[in-house]
């Protein structure tokens, strides 16, 4: 009976080790597939953020024309309200890939039919020295400084997206900039003055690949240990 019991235990151990081995092989296959999928996405798309519906390509972003939903900006003078550093908690919560924590941002406001609307520009640029701005197109602005002098400002890598609905992220950015801006906005233009999709996409891709390879290395190590247990 003792020998039969020991034989059954050995069989169960072999079955258990084989089961673990199959799980490791399956995980390895999934990891390799994830690497391939990540690489495919990197080659066929640029970074998107929480509000991008994926309907735009880089060719459209390179145009200096304002997006259709932002063209109303051309009819208003935008007055500067405040500037601040992008809070880390907002970065973590909303994961906007186009801006980093502690990047500078400035808030401009304009009134449309009695309602305050906002233009938020991220990353330090010449716009931070303006008391008022007029939007000509995606890269061209007319800047009026504190002395009342106006000059043209042209930014090389601008990108803009306009939200025609209330946004919790916008509300939090407004309050973080100044407690005076505590109301919600029905319209907000989000402007990125240093938008370089190739660099940001490459950085994100490299980070993802490193994570995948670390995971794959751990799985391979576990596979080797498991094989030794099975065949020894």
From TrEMBL:
Keyword Transmembrane: yes
Recorded superkingdom: Eukaryota
TM helices/strands, residue ranges: 14-35, 210-231
Keyword annotations: Membrane, Transmembrane, Transmembrane helix
Protein name listed in UniProt: Uncharacterized protein
The organism of origin for this protein: Bactrocera latifrons (Malaysian fruit fly)
